[in-house]
Design goal:
Largest interface: A-B, 32 and 32 residues
Oligomer: heterodimer
Number of strands of chain A: 5
Shape of chain A: globular
Distance between the termini of chain B: 26 Å
Radius of gyration of chain A: 21 Å
Low-confidence stretches of chain A: 239-270
Helix content of chain B: 40-55%
Radius of gyration of chain B: 19 Å
Helix content of chain A: 55-70%
CATH class of the largest domain in chain A: Alpha Beta
Distance between the termini of chain A: 17 Å
Largest sheet of chain B: 5 strands, parallel
Strand content of chain A: 5-15%
Chain lengths: 270, 340
């Protein structure tokens, strides 16, 4: 391996990790995990190309914009400040979006043209709230499962949260994500302040936890419905594309659709 | 008729079926192709593998497929066949009332054909409601608030034009208003599947039954909130029920919420045929139990008695079907598929 190839490999890793931090706002799951990023490649000249495809032609353009915007921020933050290109494929507004991006318009500008009177800041806030609540529910349920009393859970401060050991796949996965959402919402949170508060910042009384969890559950039920449909539709859509294109794409490698033998003999994204 | 493993006969009204033509020949534009492709995605995602249809059959299935899948191989006693026009996407419409009435002709005692109209057509919509009542004696309609119509990308149930139409429906005895409030497949910022307009319409038209197809998902909490306040709002389980196959726990959470808020008398089975076929749905629903922890949280159970209501008795009440008389009539008129 040459130094050049090493460098490119490292950058490739950094690129992928940075995209992993971008969430589908509606589902609160990483775009990489949803399989939306079909190709993310560091080219020979160091520039970056990202191809992005949603589960259906109809997927709400608002969400597409928010994700593309998140990706753009992720790419802006790459250590080698590369030139980059992001393309949205097979979407009813793909052309408008791609044209807007190429013309150097901000997503806000493109969004305004397509979305009429809806405020993107409001949308962001709605999704931030849902993400906060969904992650919080996962932590509350996880801690209950671990045998903590409601009083113990709700009395937990940020310091205790950071040092606590969590069990269960979902709780372990959501622990840093809930922390991130909490600090995004309450940026000056001190270690001695409670870690589980409502979106409005009120403490939750132990006797009210049951009713509060029912509210959180209804938020999750809606998000899971969308998530399940998106995953399902995406899988069937990519199935068709696989046949059309013939060549496996990055998403095939991510989803383990390519036999290992082939993987070993070729680079992951040629 | 569904016969339970214990030998009990269950009367089945399938509240949501289609006889569409989504074939390439009928597609007007790329939207028509993408629309049926999206449906096909739903079909393959939630159906058990052994129930998969080839794409070609899915795009346009025959009348015999319909009879077989619903009544012969399937458990339906009565099927409500809904009309959806989508004329902006399909040259002859997706499934018009004419197409539905034609296919229903062979077994009139087994089909209830519902109409549809678009309030944005103004005076024409009024005339069309009269025409459907006179020609087909419809008892219900299917509303599709996100349908495109020229420059408009959707409408609301409480628009003044819509109210004029519902006033006429009430006058003519078209009592069952099925409304698609489900996954957002037609986009843009204005969310035409938002359920809050149901609240207004149901309050202002107490004489009509509002059957909200897909229970507003993914806005289940909003739907429950509306339904709990209005005695004339019902939930159609199409799209929610198929989750029973590969996400049974999730289905348990949804049905527990619905039973908690709406109760067992307000839920209607619907296969959404041809997206899904009714046999496996009914079999799985009959065999299903809500997981204990979810049932305990909401204090609800999905008993056999409740399942029987969901599968047919609730819809029978809305459509004035005398179950005993209907069973006797169906027993006397056997089904035949045309010989090859």
């Amino acid at each position: 391996m040459s130094v050049q190839a090493d460098l490119r490999g490292n950058r490739q890793g950094e690129l992928w990790r940075s995209l992993e931090g971008v969430n589908d706002p509606e589902l609160d799951e990483p775009v990489t995990e949803m399989g939306f990023v079909e190709r993310a490649e560091v080219l020979a000249d160091g520039s970056v190309a990202v191809d992005f495809r949603l589960p259906t032609y109809w997927c709400s353009p608002n969400f597409a914009f928010l994700m593309l915007d998140g990706m753009r921020q992720a790419l802006e933050a790459l250590s080698w400040s590369p030139a980059y290109r992001i393309r949205l494929h097979d979407h009813m507004f793909a052309e408008e979006v791609n044209r807007g991006v190429e013309a150097g318009k901000t997503f806000g500008e493109i969004f305004c043209e397509l979305a009429g009177d809806e405020d993107i800041a409001d949308l962001r806030e709605t999704f931030a709230r849902k993400a906060y609540l969904r992650r919080q529910e996962a932590m509350l349920l996880g801690l209950r499962k671990q045998g903590l009393t409601d009083r113990e859970i709700l009395g937990m401060d940020l310091l205790a949260y950071d040092t606590a050991r969590f069990e269960g796949e979902e709780a372990v996965k959501q622990k840093p994500r809930y922390r991130e959402a909490l600090l995004l919402r309450w940026s000056g949170r001190r270690p001695t302040e409670p870690v589980f508060v409502t979106w409005e910042g009120s403490p939750i009384a132990p006797r009210a936890l049951g009713a509060y969890l029912a509210e959180l559950r209804s938020v999750r039920i809606n998000m899971e419905f969308n998530g399940a449909l998106c995953r399902g539709l995406k899988t069937t859509r990519y199935k068709e594309l696989e046949v059309v294109d013939g060549e496996p794409t990055l998403v095939d490698f991510i989803l383990d659709r390519v036999p290992p033998r082939d993987c070993a003999s070729r680079p992951a994204h040629s | 008729m569904f016969i339970t493993p214990e030998g009990k006969e269950i009367f089945v009204v399938d509240g949501h079926t289609h006889f569409w033509d989504g074939s390439p020949e009928n597609q007007r534009n790329i939207h028509g192709k993408q629309f049926i492709d999206c449906f096909y995605g739903y079909h393959t995602f939630l159906s058990p593998k052994e129930e998969y249809w080839p794409k070609e059959k899915f795009e346009k299935y025959s009348a015999d497929d319909l009879y077989n899948d619903l009544f012969i191989n399937g458990p339906d006693d009565v099927a409500i066949i809904q009309s959806t026009y989508l004329k902006d996407f399909y040259k002859n419409g997706f499934n018009t009332i004419e197409r539905n009435a034609e296919v229903a002709k062979r077994y009139p005692e087994r089909f209830i054909v519902n109409g549809s109209f678009d309030p944005r057509d103004g005076e024409k919509a009024i005339e069309y409601i009269h025409y459907m009542k006179e020609t087909y004696d419809i008892q219900g309609v299917k509303m599709y608030t996100a349908e495109w119509n020229g420059a408009s990308k959707g409408w609301r149930l409480n628009d003044p034009d819509a109210y004029r139409c519902f006033e006429l429906c009430e006058k003519l005895g078209i009592r069952n208003i099925h409304v698609h409030k489900g996954p957002t497949i037609i986009p843009l910022a204005k969310d035409s599947f938002d359920v809050h307009d149901v609240d207004h319409a149901a309050t202002d038209f107490q004489g009509l039954n509002w059957i909200i197809e897909h229970c507003g998902l993914p806005r289940l909490d909003d739907f429950c909130w509306v339904a709990v306040q209005e005695t004339n709002v019902y939930g159609g389980l199409a799209v929610a029920l198929p989750f029973i196959n590969n996400r049974p726990r999730y289905f348990g959470e949804v049905i527990a919420e619905l039973l908690y808020w709406l109760g067992p008398d307000k839920l209607l089975f619907g296969s959404d045929y041809g997206i899904w076929t009714p046999r496996w749905l009914v079999e799985k629903l009959w065999a299903y139990q809500i997981p204990d922890d979810i049932a305990a949280e909401r204090g609800v159970q999905l008993t056999d008695e409740i399942k029987e209501k969901i599968l047919g008795l609730n819809a029978a009440r809305l459509y004035n079907i005398d179950v005993a008389a209907k069973k006797a009539a169906l027993a006397k008129s056997p089904l035949r598929i045309a010989a090859e």
